[in-house]
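cron nightly-structures :: item 1 of 1
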Amino acid sequence: MNRPGAGGELFDEWPEQYDRWFGTPIGALVRKYEGELILELLKPGRGETILDAGCGTGVFTLDLLASGAHVTGLDISLPMLRRSREKAGGVPLQIVLGDMLHLPLPGNFFDRAISVTALEFIEDGQSAVRELFRVTKRGGSIVVATLNSLSPWASRRKFEAPKKQSIFTKAIFRSPEEMRSLAPLEGVIRTAVHFRKEDDPKIAPEIERAGREKGLNTGAFIAARWQKE
């Protein structure tokens, strides 16, 4: 996860903790539904060049690699980048240490660009999205996902962060409308993860299905997609 506005050392101790969360029963479901939404919106293709800005430990980078795309993972934390490369195994993954607000990459280079759960730590969201647009080719897709401020997950993290001295103490959570305003053109906004952290993993899939059927905008995971003109 790229964390502009904060030193990379803030997240250097996170690789194991971050991956361990997705190994829990409820975490695995979160990973499943978030990953499905990302792939649905981004639609990565074999042979395409894709930037994963704020790739963290490569949790979602692996899905992009599995599509046959040529992926560049960028992050502000070197330990996280190293973990993502380890997890990629023998599949080529180019890693770049850098700040998402000032991408050390050429313009109009990537077919698609994505950033997942990095925006929470970027106050100037418009500048971050502008950088993703800059490095993406005309006609390419940009997908940005973050934690939805309208969700119970965001409220809980804000409440618990000071007690646990969590990195989420200064996190910025955005609503669907706030996400929509980050780019100068119309985009597609979707949410996922309509269940709560404390819900029984056995009934969580039914809660998720119901939330999607109702078109609720309060899912914990919010993703926006734009196409560069």
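cron nightly-structures :: done
The chain is about 35% helix and 20% strand.
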